[in-house]
Amino acid sequence: MRVGALIRGLLGIAMVFGAVWLVAILYWRASGATPGTPQIVGTLLVLPLLLVAGVLLLRALARRRKAGHEQTAKDSVAGSAAPQNTTTPVEADRIVYLLDSAAFTRAGSGGEVLAGALLQPQRPSLHPSLRDQMGLPVFAAQVDDLDVERVRAAVDGLLPESGPRSQGFAEYQLRALALLEPVAEDLLYAALPFADVDPVAAPSADTAMHPHAMQHSRSSRALAPAPQAPVLHIRLLLPAHWPEPVRRACLGWIADKAATIGFASGTFRISVEPVAGTADAWRVIDRLAQPDAHADTAPSDTHLLLAAHSLVDELAVSRLDATRSLLVSGHPEGLIPGEGAAGVWLSTQTPGDGREAPPLRLHRVVHGPAGHGRTAGRELASLLQRALAVASLPADDVAAVFSDADHRPSRAIEIAGAMTACLPEPDPVEQGRHLGLVCGETGAVAVLALLAAAAAQATGEDAPVVLASVADGTVRFAAALSPMPNPEPPAAPAAETV
User: Burial level of 94, CB count in 10 A (0-12/13-18/19+)?
Assistant: First the structure.
């Protein structure tokens, strides 16, 4: 390496001398001048040496300036990675308990399958029929072998004024509902036993009691409030651009499923949350954790969030292409149309011990503005540190980082830089799980699918994981998901002294 640099340097010096000599000799011949000794020495020796010295000086200054910029960048990264809790107060944690989850995406069905697919991601391929405005095939993360006709038969009749002139469901909406159906059924069956609370049976043999005691017992039973069964609050997170009649029909479809599965009319409530993307889904979860956000719910109530989304359709692809949001040639920051459905079953209070699998703790969701350029990774690293500080989790305990980053170079650089600065132990390649690489753009489904995959990872390794959301263009979200703490063993009784 040094010999090559020396040879290149000598060649450069020779070229400088040769160029100066050639210009000087041509000038002297053209002008007819006869140079003296001072002119020859100054032009053919001193001037080339001055030019070589100037070039070397400029290169030295450039190297020094570059080294200064690199040192400044390292200091800023180290400063952002250093603990800043001494000046910034840590927010109070707000825990939501993850009871169960389900997902159905291109990677398969279930959180375990999705977590395994993210470990070795297979990127989407070109769709056989979808085309952009130029007639070229587009990449799409579609789910194969969906039975949309069965769903069409179930939901078309729920639309108001259903008839020959009604628009009906679009193809991408039916695909989203076909993906949602098994997810909703799995979680509704999981939540069904907790919707049935049998009141304690009162003794019927009142004849064996003293009349005064019998009267007192009856008055006590009359004044005691009857135990109330917990209510399951179902929220459908559907794309905001879906027409309102379509969203209402989806609400009725899920309500019919809940009643068919066995939920009584008073044991569940259902509503629709129009969402524009991942940011709205994170805000819904954050509102659930706020203690004063739901005055009409009891502490024992649980919450079921269901999301469905699909962009695998000619109409959806045309909409993306018209807004320059589609991945096409010359636009690497475009999106890959995807589809999927996911759901999470949450509780705001600590669940009982009668469950087969222990729940997980979803700690407070923190958010911040999206960074730009070189600062994006550092700002996301600061957000991840906030999430860990809120949850009181050391960075060394984190088993993996789940994100919704996709193929876009800006998102890949941002999440890799944040993991390197904030979590020095995890390898960004080995321990990063990025949903968008496999599933493309899935809207609000990405949030719930990330929770399902992260829950499977945290349960399997019995270790906390971190979730980072970089899909939105203006805001970033982060949260920690950790197993329940192990119960402390009872203290040994003190030895008695005589």
Answer: middle
What's the CA gap between 441 and 404, in Å, rounded? 9
Q: Does 306 score more than 80 pLDDT?
A: yes
Residues 401, 274: Cα–Cα separation, whole Å: 28
Residues 6+ positions from 433 with CB-CB distance below 8 Å = 115, 118, 119, 400, 401, 402, 403, 453, 454, 457
Element (H, E) at 433: strand 432-434
Q: pLDDT tens digit string along 148-176? A: 999 998 998 888 765 554 578 999 999 99
Instruction: Determine the 3-state secondary structure of 121 from DSSP.
Output: coil
The Cα 131–Cα 128 span in angstroms is 9
Which tokens sit at 225?
């409030």
Q: What is the pTM of this model?
A: 0.75
Question: Under 8 Å CB-to-CB from 125, ≥6 apart: which residues?
Answer: 139
Identity of residue 128: P
What are the E-state strand segments in 88-198?
A: 96-105, 108-109, 126-131, 137-139
Please calculate the CA angle 164-168-173 and round it to the nearest 5 degrees. 160
Where residue 223 falls among pLDDT bands split at 50, 70, 90? very low
Within 8 A by CB and 6+ apart from 90, the residues are: 386, 389, 390
Distances 264 to 118, 197, 294, 356 between C-alpha atoms, Å: 39, 12, 22, 24
119 Cβ contact list (under 8 Å, min separation 6): 433
For the cut 60, the answer to whether the pLDDT of residue 70 exceeds it is no
